Amino acid sequence: MRKYGFLLFLLLLTTTSLFAQNENWRRGRHDYRDAPSDDAFELTPFVGYRWGGTIFADQTNLFHRDVEVKPSADFGVDLGIPLGDTGLKLELMANHQSSTLRTDTGIFQPDNRVADVDVNYVQAGLQIPFARSRNATPYVVVSGGLATIDPQVTNVSAENRFAASAGIGVKVPVNRNLSLRLEGRGYYTSLGNGDCRVCDYFVNEDFTQGEVNMGFVFSF
């Protein structure tokens, strides 16, 4: 229920902002000079909700069974560095999730908690705007970097692996220095050990997650 309540809140907030923008345009109280410039730096703290992420039994002898990350909140920050006046941004992102590992016992079954876990992403990539209008700037984002999976288990160290992500979002300007940003993103992390016997296809070595985020963009 908390998941759906959060998504409903995002939808209502976005709809309200868009209606306010349209009313301002109709009354002539807003023009392009009120929107952030294309060559502005952007700092975006955000919060969201993340789901997915399974560690399969054949990847580790730690749990001897498949375990998955329980859906939970995430938070982080983005820094957008302008690439000229094109609207393109070099994006530097750090993102954190604290959750628990649990065994998947099937639909409507109680969770079997195994351990606490932290999942962190540190990535760099490109934010690419498209179909921009006076009310909103939709964009796609692609990035790559590190994922750190850190089970809170005695004598177990964190694992750092290459991770990539892609997403789509929208920025709704409030004024020249502030915008509302909504985004959905998916992450892919390879947990393979790099062994290759006649380059066999690795099964169950992908750690994938999805998330939705909301933040406020401070342009300067």
Kindly report the spatial arrangement of strands forming the biggest sheet.
Answer: 1-4-5-6-7-8-9-10
Shape: elongated
Rg, Cα atoms, Å: 20 Å
Instruction: Give the amount of beta strand, in percent.
Output: over 45%
Number of strands: 10
SS summary, helix count: 1
> What is the level-2 CATH architecture name?
Beta Barrel
Main β-sheet description? 8 strands, antiparallel, barrel
Roughly how much helix do the residues carry, as a percent range?
10-25%
Characteristic key phrases:
220 residues, mainly beta, Porin, eight-stranded antiparallel β-barrel, 1 helix, 11% helix, 54% strand, elongated
Describe what you observe in this structure:
This protein is mainly beta. The chain has one domain: Porin (Beta Barrel). 11% of the residues lie in helices and 54% in strands. It contains one helix and ten strands. The protein has one helix at residues 2-26, and strands at residues 42-52, 54-55, 67-69, 72-82, 89-103, 112-129, 137-151, 159-175, 178-190, 206-219. It has an eight-stranded antiparallel beta barrel with strand order 1-4-5-6-7-8-9-10. A hairpin with an 8-residue loop joins strand 5 (89-103) and strand 6. The two termini are 38 Å apart. Mean pLDDT is 82; it is low at 14-30 and 196-202.
